[in-house]
Amino acid sequence: MNQYLPIAPTDTTQPSPAVSMVCEIRQGMTPWSFVRVDQITTATLRVLWLAVIDPGQPLRVKLPGLQMMTARVTALEGQVVELAFDVPLHPAVFDYLLRTHKA
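Structure (tokenized):
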């Protein structure tokens, strides 16, 4: 019998609570840029981006402490860019990011 109680999973479909996180993003062969993360779910990431972006090209994203991931632009409004991960974050990884990067 398992002596540990299960942990209630986080609802990862809703926008995250306030996070304070900076990640690195690059598109193509452009230099890496540090950007502020506004919201994150297991499937999406919303960042404040000041550089020129090509919505048709995938981006490489480096979240703190994680391997590089591929994401695609799903929405672009002013300087706010919403990205969708090609492979969603595992719920445990998502919970880790929320715990370690609370605003």
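The longest helix spans residues 91-100. The domain at 21-100 is CATH 2.40.10.220 (Thrombin, subunit H).
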